Amino acid sequence: MKTYWRSIDELANPQELRRQEVREESKQKSMLLKGDKELNSASRRDFLKTFGFSLAAASIVASCKRPVEKAIPYLVKPDEITPGMANYYASSYFDGNEYASIIVKVRDGRPIKIEGNTLSSISQGGTSARIQASVLNLYDDARFKGPLKNGEEITWEKADGEVAATLSKVKGSKVVLLSSTIISPSTQKIIQKFAEKQGNVEWIQYDPVSASGILQATKKSFGSAFIPDYRFGKAKVVVSFGADFLGSWLSTVEYTKAYTAARSLQDGRKEMLRHYQFEAGMTLSGSNADVRFPIKPSEEGAIVLALYNEIAKAKGATVFSGAKSSVDISELAKELLEHPKQSLVISGSNDENIQLLINGINELLGNYGETIGLDRPLLTKQGVDADADRLLADLKAGNVKALLVWNANPVFDHPKGKEFAESIKKVGLTVSFAERKDEISAVCQYILPETNYLETWNDLEPKAGVFSLAQPTIAPIFNARPVQETLLKWAGEPQKHRDFIQNFWKENQFAAQKEVADFRRFWDKSLQRGVYETALESKSAYSSDGLSQAASQIKGAASGIEVVLYESIAIGNGKYANNPWLQELPDPVAKISWDNFAAVPVAYAEENGLKNEDVISVNGLELPVFIQPGQAKDTISVALGYGREVSGKVGDKTGKNMYPFVITENGSRQYFLTGVKVEKVQGKIFELAISQTHYSMEGRPIARETTLADYIKNPVSGNEKEAEDLAKAVTLYKEPEYNGHHWGMAVDLNSCTGCGNCAIACQAENNIQVIGKEQVRNRRIMHWIRIDRYYSENPENPKVSFQPVMCQHCGNAPCENVCPVAATPHSEEGLNQMAYNRCVGTKYCINNCPYRVRRFNWFQYVKNDKFDFNSNSDLGRMVLNPDVTVRSRGVVEKCSMCVQRIQEKKLKAKLEGRPVVEGEIKTACAQSCPGNAIVFGDLLNPESRISKLLKDERNYHLLEELHTLPSVSYLTKVRNEKA
Amino acid sequence: MNIEKRGFINSQNTKPSGMKKPSLNLTVIQRFKLVFAVFILSLLAFSALPVSAFSQDDSDEMIDDRSHQEDVKRGERFFKGLLPKDRRFESCVSCHVLTPSGEQINWNPSAIDIAKKFADKDFSDFQAAVMQPNGKKMEASHKNFTIEDTDLKTVKAYLDDLAINGTPKIGPTVNQIVLFLVLGLLITLALLDLIFFKKIKYRFISVFVLLLGLLFQVKMVSEAAIKLGRSQNYAPDQPIKFSHKVHAGDNRIDCKYCHTTAEYGKSAGIPAMELCMNCHVLVREGARSGKFEIAKVVEANENKTPVEWVRVHNLPDHVFFSHAQHVGIGKVDCKQCHGPVQEMDILKQNADLSMGWCINCHRQTKVNFKDNAYYDNYMKLHDQIKSGKLDTVRAVNIGANDCMRCHY
Question: Is residue B1 in a domain?
């Protein structure tokens, strides 16, 4: 049996870690007692206050009358609305970075939950944590309440008039529209109309973390700049150079869907995609890779070149000389050559030269047209880095007479943000269309807020020929207006955005098809499905232009320490830093929330005497240290997107802004910095909200794994203990009997990538409260589903396992027996129930739960100024799911297997007089899982998917030896290592 | 024996035997009187408090138009039937009550309703409405009216004043608290007598009073505690004098004609205003209510302002209840929970909506097990029915009383 370890501390000395944990606990307790002492020495005033309060409370209770509640009917009841029942609308999410087709759950006029749209060929029903959390952005206190001019309120008419007047004055001189990538065909048309009317308009698309390198490389290789369509599902071997395609690179939901499907061993599959990852920091993709090479970012070019040469040699193509590779890639090249047309080589680098070599490799391997499609390029990132630099030069030179900023924030996320801020102030007319507070709108004259994506119509084209529609699911909450309407107005064609889109679709998409004759029907169908696809043919042909020049420009590895900048899973590029759900989502690998940190290699920390939470100065910027197993030698990884200055009460001043570390090289921004000076800041400690040591499983074999070779030989391999435990199973208790249903869940560890989508989906569905950094540090995080991360083997390059753990709904639940008030009994359908109103908060159940999945409400987290997050404002509370109780202080809570969804679907089946259909009920975590790792169903139904998974040889229960009889089971992880 | 002993102690002291502390000079009756007087005084002080607070408010207000104020006063007296002295017709207030409440419905529009309706209308409109009634019911009751214009003007002034200031507030009833305090007093006295005074000859009387008082207090507290959050028989006044008796009883309209979503929705649904108009587009006058109440429905539709009904059945937030499950699937008759609605002029909450009430019903209710294919899953129970082990399946057998059926 492998030994797993959770952190470097534990690997070194598990007993010491446990001792430390106990010390920490007693420290907290003593702090609680200290608090009491202070209360005892309270002044007479405090006594009087308390006394007065209790008197008032007593008199209120004595004269307690229930408030008169009103029941106000509709004047005219809309047909589709039944009060108390949810409606679902197809829509689309795109924030300038990530795309997904979604289904929005609307309860009594309020969008409260996002689900994936299974009809979409791109997101296929999956979402990411950020997409799940996007519903909370709608109810963000930092949103602008109406148009502003220099901070003063202004009416739309007046603002329109003033801006239009200024624009006509500067007609002919340069006006710049700076936006994020815009993939809406109708919006592009609107911008074109505006540009035609205004004359000299330059439209610049800007991505904070761009794909500039890929765009420039494809321009040379194929004649036009585009991002190819990567088809992970068709690949047998995937080699990724620093591209975190499961976490943050381009279209992660799509890639995760395809990747996990290609690695699934369910339904008797015996094949798996093999994944090689070259990277510096431990990313989500790296932690899922079968073979991982920790490298410095500056080494990447030479390795790619060596790989190209090795393959070119075999294929008889030209070989280039260049810098020497630090890694022996001959085996890898051999394997790639064994899988022509079935391999996929990608790089996350923004260096055009590296991307050109990658294109060369894929061409030699025959991957174009097979694993890399050219007919449906991905359109979600179109920003070319040089454009932003040119804009800055223009601004400085005073060439720009008016600047319109839409969903772009270079003041924060451009390396020269400060210069942007200074030069923008000098522009004659500056207009920001920002939806919520950001750094650039703080320096703009006019703020003409745009509506949230859930409040507007839109059409999107994330991939060529793949269209998707967005529809409003709520009337605009604030006095905001879609930018499209604003631009149409300024272009002299004022009209409703919806009418424009409809007409646009009538002229384009509808006219181009022949299946539906009536536009109304075509529109309704597309709107209902949310997606519409057309057939396209590839026109691109590969040419090796520029390849030799690229090879000659590849540099060798740099010396010294390198800082690697990455987008974190939760915060991404920092746009939604004010979203408390995302801030509290622990990083999947480091398990840290509420801050970014410097991830340093284990050996480096040892050499320099660094501990977690020490502070180092990196080129003068002080950062907290986190020792990250698997971090490449001489590298330090730090997340982008933190350190916002103007974002709102939650996002401001969390972490440090790393964008100034980004350098521009070869026309593109490079997200690593070489030759960095690092010093330890003596005697300084920065506390991090690390949740890694929260939940110790004390070294028991809980995350099981095997290799593909062993699995094919013996499907039980890695899971031998299951039979052993079952043989010993005896109990004194009567085993529970189930009549109608027995709900259960299976988690395929081979499909779980650890992305954290389930945690946020659960948070949105079940009204889970955000508790803040300090309480997370106190190990009180409320997430009902946590994703445990375990390391094994070599700390310099460990193997990583992810394991989502939620309430196991034990048949022999240890928590149920110890509750003195019977607040947590067992249901007839196998659920371990939790009756909040019965709970008195003894916490016996928490102490007796071997899985550590119960959470205690240490404080009142709702309507409490001490916890000033979304639940402390009426606006933020609009996101609450009315079907789930908001728990108050002093009660225990835990996963309920989304009992509200079970009940809803059972009720539907009963009303329709039919049994519950398999797959009809889905828990929040299972529904939008991009890896399809979680399966929920009825264990009593022999035909159900879960019953079949339970018969899989890989199936096991957590801590089976305790005979708790969990309803949740796990399937062994299988690594596709080379034998 | 006691007296002898005491005398003995006294005689031991050299002081005169008649010497006692002054307070002990009072007889038992005197002492009771004293305590009672203190009690009454404190009660008076309490009841006077709100009064003085109100009067202070009034004095703060600047009154410019003295004659207007006099008009209002005259109007009030006229409205209440004190003016004119030789009045031959009934007082206004006898029909148009100031504080609409009580078990029985008063079909006539209340004073405040009228005041609000005519607040922004001219006197001539008001006069026309009073003197030239256009409904049958109103014609009958207003036919003997002989009112001077000047008097009617003062009535209008009074009603306008009412529309702004509202009906006089009624102080909170303190019966229960007074009773509780009196009992406390009795207990204290009984205790004092038992330990110190020992004036009552038979100790069992004091003990009896003490125990009875305590028992009664416990009963009051526990009853009040159980009632917290419950509101059986709650029958609030509604903004429209809508009578379920007239609609569901006399006219036999099916419950689900108005409460449309009862069979498939979570809530039974309060009918949209347009639904009322299905009938009331024609029915504009009630036999007892006249035109006034129905006019409110019509106006609500015309003004696009829905009526703000007072919600009668309020379940706590942590309870999930679905009408679909009970009405649609369980086929429970509406009356079983809501009582004889067809006999209620003012709708009141019939059941106490306590958890015990829910659970008891779940224990007794038989499940329609054979006819709904949903229950095909329950193979074991079907087998037990076949083999005769089980005669009927009740809701409780399939988990209706699990916590997470209603609480999640």
Answer: no
Q: Which two tokens stand for residue A645?
A: 């200055």
Q: Which CATH class is domain A224-378?
A: alpha beta
* Residue B54 covered by a domain: no
Tell me the CATH number at B87.
1.10.760
Q: How far apart are CA A217 and CA A547, in angstroms?
A: 10
Cα-Cα-Cα-Cα torsion B359, B365, B371, B377, nearest 10 degrees, comes to: 40
B345 with B298, same domain: the answer is: yes
User: pLDDT tens for residues B128-161?
Assistant: 888 877 777 777 778 777 777 888 888 888 888 8
Confidence of residue A2 (pLDDT cuts 50, 70, 90): low
CB atoms within 10 A of CB A978: 13
Are B125 and B197 in the same domain?
A: no
Residues B282 and B334 in one domain: yes
Chain segment A680-692, per-residue pLDDT in tens = 999 899 999 988 6
Claim to verify: residue B241 and residue B347 sit in the same structural domain: yes
pLDDT bucket at B217, cuts 50 / 70 / 90: confident
Q: Is pLDDT at B381 greater than 80 in this prediction?
A: yes
Nearest Cα residue to A661 out of A439, A443, A413: A413
Chain B residues touching residue A737 (CB < 8 angstroms)? 380
Measured distance between the N- and C-terminal CA atoms of chain B, rounded to whole angstroms = 69
Whole-Å CA distances, A830 to A839, A921, A937, B380, B402: 20, 15, 12, 16, 11
Q: How far is CA A616 from CA A313, A609, A631, A677, B58, in A?
A: 46, 11, 16, 10, 70
What is the pLDDT at residue A530? 92
Decide if pLDDT at A39 tops 60: no
| Cis peptide upstream of residue B84 (ω within 30 degrees of 0) | yes
* Binary contact (A884, B408; C-beta < 8 A): yes
Task: Give the distance from residue A827's alpha carbon to the nearest chain B alpha carbon, in angstroms.
Answer: 6
Say yes or no: B242 and B324 in one domain: yes
Look at the alpha carbons of B111, B114, B116, B118 in this order and tell me if their dihedral is positive or negative. negative
Query: What is the total count of domains within chain B?
Result: 4
Chain A residue whose CA is closest to B302: A75
Q: What is the pLDDT of residues A464-508, one digit of tens each?
A: 989 999 999 999 999 999 999 999 999 888 999 999 999 999 999
Provide, as residue numbers in chain B, all residues whose Cβ is less than 8 Å from the Cβ of A836.
318, 407
Spatial distance between the Cα atoms of A239 and A289, rounded to a whole number of angstroms:
9
Last residue of a domain, one of B188, B204, B228: B228
Say yes or no: B344 and B363 in one domain: no
Q: Which residues contact A486 (CB under 8 A, 6 or more apart)?
A: A160, A433, A448, A450
B311:A84 CB<8 A = no
* pLDDT score, position A757: 94
Query: Which residue reads 């009526």 in tokens?
Result: B307
Fold observed for domain A715-975: Alpha-Beta Plaits (3.30.70)
Of A776-780, B3-7, B333-337, the one with minimum mean pLDDT is B3-7
Contacts of B266 in chain A (CB under 8 A): 82-85
pLDDT digits (tens, 9 = 90+) for A781-816: 999 999 999 888 888 899 899 999 999 999 999 999
Architecture in CATH for domain A565-690: Beta Barrel (2.40)
Identify the CATH class of A148-209+383-512: alpha beta
Q: Is residue A178 a contact partner of residue A206, using CB atoms and an 8 Å limit?
A: yes
For residue A517, give the DSSP letter.
Answer: -
Cross-chain Cβ contact A911/B328 below 8 Å: yes
Confidence (pLDDT) at B168: 63
Q: B250 and B118, same structural domain?
A: no
Enter the tokens of residue A882: 């009315």
Q: Flag whether pLDDT at A924 surpasses 80.
A: yes
- Residue B160 belongs to what domain range? 66-165
Cα–Cα distance, A689 to A773 (Å, whole number): 6
What is the identity of the amino acid at A151?
A: G
Judged against a pLDDT cut of 50, whether residue A602 lies above it is answered with yes
